[in-house]
Specification:
By secondary structure, this protein is mainly α. About 60% of the residues lie in helices and about 5% in strands. It has 22 helices and 8 strands. It has helices spanning about 30-45, 45-50, 70-80, 85-100, 105-115, 120-130, 135-150, 150-160, 165-175, 175-195, 195-200, 215-220, 225-240, 245-250, 255-265, 280-285, 290-305, 310-315, 320-330, 335-355, 380-395, 400-410; strands at about 15, 20-25, 55, 65, 205-210, 270, 360-365, 370. It has a two-stranded antiparallel sheet. A two-stranded antiparallel sheet has the order 3-4. Strand 3 (about 55) and strand 4 (about 65) form a beta hairpin. Helix 6 (about 120-130) packs antiparallel against helix 7 (about 135-150) and helix 19 (about 320-330) runs antiparallel to helix 20. The longest helix has 19 residues, at about 335-355.
Length: about 425
């Protein structure tokens, strides 16, 4: 079976929380033709897919899993299969599990938890996003978007997986328009449900534990002793780079479960295992894209990221308003529905940036990522914030034309942003 392009539907559904709205685009249920294609993939895979128990509901194109945990384990193995169509089918099935019964359903919520807890799942997705066909990349990104939905642990696991951000950036820059849209949706959902993930997405205040010295770790991680930090450094020098957090525990048996969890959840700094590119430049490009799905979710991702204290200085340093939000607002739209979504999300992003006048400086760190300092450099004035507040009110309550103009007023009122 020849690989085909990833083509999602354009239907969308918004889920609103107190401080964010998260777009989750629903892909179509499996058609009879697609089920046949998947069956052919399972035959090609032989014993691997033979481990799974599949139960097809009478008269329905979608299928039910009799044993979700076992099925997920088999599907995760499928992500690494050498046959591209099988790897894509595995990602598609994991996507299907993540939306079973609706995004907020108890079944889908449980499935997302099971998927996230399966060994190797995020490494499998990173492999497919990086090395898969366009079809595989598209389904991998679509599955990541659903696995991240309303699951903070999964969100952080995604962005901390070695190679994941590099792969997502490659998809956002080079793949088909539909795969780009799926990648934008994944970043949108991940940033919507985890501020820490938002910081890592733009590489704010990150520290690669495979490059940090023992003295740096001891200074920045007070929950570890100097001896433990030295053991971490020595273990890396002896055995090579750590590929998982469990590797650290195996090297130094004095690190207990609590400390290991503190390593995983460290916010200042955000600990990572590899140097990865930030996704902000790729998001800026998609904010100016002609493809409406990618553009809408890219602006949504910027909105969610703007809620993160660590990430806002990075947005400011990258001129996010002028380079991304303003072009999205000035783009041509066939109807008002997408424009309304763009206006709402861009308005919230601008309001988040302008409503937090804490002065910051942004400088290059030794590993090429941007770190946040604490000295004053951002120009601001009461006039700018008053103007921005008035424009925000117009943008949120006015019509489409008034909203677009008001957002651009906010941009003009925020010098240097």
């Amino acid at each position: 079976q020849q690989p085909v392009s990833f083509v999602p539907t354009t239907a969308s559904q918004s889920v609103t929380s107190a401080d964010a709205s998260c777009s989750s685009r629903s892909l179509p249920c499996l058609s009879e033709g697609r089920l046949k294609a998947l069956s052919e993939c399972w035959v090609l895979a032989g014993s691997l897919w033979g481990e799974a128990t599949l139960v097809f509901a009478a008269g329905q194109a979608d299928h039910e899993m009799e044993d979700v945990r076992e099925q997920v384990r088999v599907l995760v193995q499928g992500l690494l299969h050498s046959e591209p169509s099988i790897a894509a089918a595995a990602a598609e099935s994991l996507f299907d599990l993540g939306v079973r019964g609706g995004y907020a359903s108890e079944v889908a919520t449980h499935n997302r938890m099971e998927i996230g807890q399966t060994d190797g799942v995020f490494e499998g997705f990173a492999h497919l996003v990086t090395s898969g066909t366009d079809e595989g990349q598209g389904w991998a990104c679509a599955a990541l978007a659903q696995i991240a939905f309303d699951n903070t642990t999964n969100c952080i696991s995604v962005v901390r997986t070695p190679g994941m951000l590099s792969g997502l950036r490659r998809v956002m820059e080079r793949s088909s328009k539909d795969s780009k849209a799926a990648a934008a949706l994944a970043v949108n959902n991940i940033s919507a449900f985890s501020e820490q993930a938002s910081a890592i997405i733009v590489q704010a205040d990150v520290l690669n534990i495979n490059r940090a010295s023992a003295s740096s770790l001891a200074h920045l991680l007070p929950f570890l002793s100097l001896a433990q930090c030295q053991a971490i450094e020595q273990g890396r020098q002896k055995n090579g780079a750590y590929k998982s957090w469990e590797d650290i525990e195996r090297v130094d048996h004095t690190i207990d479960k609590t400390q290991l969890e503190q390593l995983r959840s460290s916010r200042r700094p955000n600990l990572v295992l590899t140097d990865e590119p930030g996704l902000l430049d790729a998001l800026k490009i998609l904010c100016r894209a002609e493809h409406t799905d990618a553009r809408t979710d890219a602006v949504g991702a910027v909105n969610h990221i703007s809620r993160c204290d660590q990430a806002r200085p990075i947005l400011i340093a990258h001129n996010i308003v002028y380079d991304a939000l303003a072009p999205a607002l000035m783009a041509k739209y066939e109807g008002n529905e997408e424009l309304d979504a763009i206006v709402a999300r861009a308005t919230m992003a601008m309001a988040n940036i302008m409503a937090h006048p804490t002065n910051v400086t942004v400088s290059d760190s030794s590993n090429g990522n941007l770190d946040c300092g604490a000295t004053a450099s951002r120009p601001s004035g009461h006039g700018a914030f008053y103007a921005g507040g008035a424009a925000a009110e117009v943008a949120l309550e006015g019509g489409v034309e008034a909203s677009s103009f008001a957002c651009l007023q906010m941009a003009a009122a925020a010098p240097g942003v």
